[in-house]
Write a structure and sequence with these properties.
alpha/beta; TIM Barrel; 2 domains
């Protein structure tokens, strides 16, 4: 963990214009941010998401595409290109700011091909009691990234990873092409269970959206570790903001953070988003991960929200 007791700025919001300009803006304003007293900056997800140039980044499609390949309708992301992202990081660090990348590890969305598999349907609001017997479904769970691989074949560059995601790398999905109008079902894939050591909302809150990664699968854990090491080598970021961690087995992150820090030979600052406005739950999670990370203060967020609504009566 970083020793400095600094001030981090979240340098984006949901409604940032989808004009590909954010990375250049961050680079231009790096000195101003430093002069204002900020010591660290949290940048949004920098990889290709399902919505391409219009996606905030949390509907993650390809973690290795930082705005470099023609996938999901564009080369750039909502915020710019790979070169612009790396340029922003260099400028920010050159002005004394630490840079934290947003890591969305929980799911994938926007698969390239349909796979046929059997699955048990559960209600969205109840992950303990199935609402029917196991059935055959068609899900977009094969991610083979043809845009990235085709470009690399044409240019002779490395595709960064040959890994392809299949249904057996996930434990559940929420879309069945055989029932395209059904938005109320989570399908637990055959032979799978919802991950353990997660939030207990809805009985088990391992599943959030899209194709939910199966962290019980050693191939999944190995690939997420390879990606993290590649990301650190490629970008040189100083740490991570971890998205949606209450949906991922808590035992995974101490292992992953240790692998990342061992790879770069230094401490990294890591802050997680465990979105529960309950101090006891946040303290439980910190104990569960051995205090290997910090947590965003969700309780403070809600107190600000309540105060903004209550005004003088707060």
């Amino acid at each position: 963990m970083a020793d400095i007791n600094g001030v981090m700025i979240q340098y984006f919001h949901w409604y940032v214009p989808a004009n590909g300009a954010l990375w250049n803006e961050a680079q231009t304003k790096a000195k101003d941010l430093s002069d204002a007293g900020f010591t660290a900056i949290w940048l949004p997800p920098a990889y290709k998401a399902m919505g391409g140039p219009n996606d905030v980044g949390y509907g993650v499609y390809d973690l290795y595409d930082l705005g470099e390949f023609n996938q999901q309708g564009a080369i750039r992301t909502k915020y710019g290109t790979r070169d612009q992202y790396l340029g922003a990081i260099q400028a920010l660090q050159g002005n004394g700011l630490q840079v934290y990348a947003d890591a969305v590890l929980n799911h994938r969305i926007g698969g390239d091909s349909i796979e046929t598999v059997r699955a048990t349907p559960f209600p969205q609001e109840d992950r303990l009691h199935p609402k029917g017997d196991m059935e055959e479904i068609h899900c977009y769970s094969h991610f083979h990234f043809p845009g990235r691989k085709q470009t690399c074949q044409q240019t002779g560059q490395t595709p960064y990873s040959d890994f392809e995601w299949h249904w057996y790398h996930f434990d559940a999905v929420d879309y069945n092409a055989k029932k395209p109008d059904d938005y109320g079902t989570v399908y637990l894939l055959e032979g799978k269970v919802f991950d353990d050591y997660v939030a207990l909302e809805k009985g088990n809150f391992a599943y959030l959206m899209g194709c939910d990664l199966d962290f019980q699968n050693p191939q999944v854990r190995a690939e997420i570790t390879r990606w993290g090491q590649w990301y650190l080598d490629t970008t040189g970021v100083d740490g991570f903001r971890l998205d949606a961690i209450k949906h991922i087995s808590s035992w995974f992150f101490p292992e992953w953070i240790e692998a990342m820090e061992s790879h770069v030979g230094k401490d990294l600052f890591v802050v997680g988003e465990y979105w529960v406005p309950n101090l006891e739950s946040l303290q439980w999670y910190l104990d569960a991960v051995g205090e290997r990370m910090s947590l965003l203060d969700v309780c403070l967020h809600y107190n600000f929200h309540y105060a903004s609504k209550a005004g003088g009566t707060y």
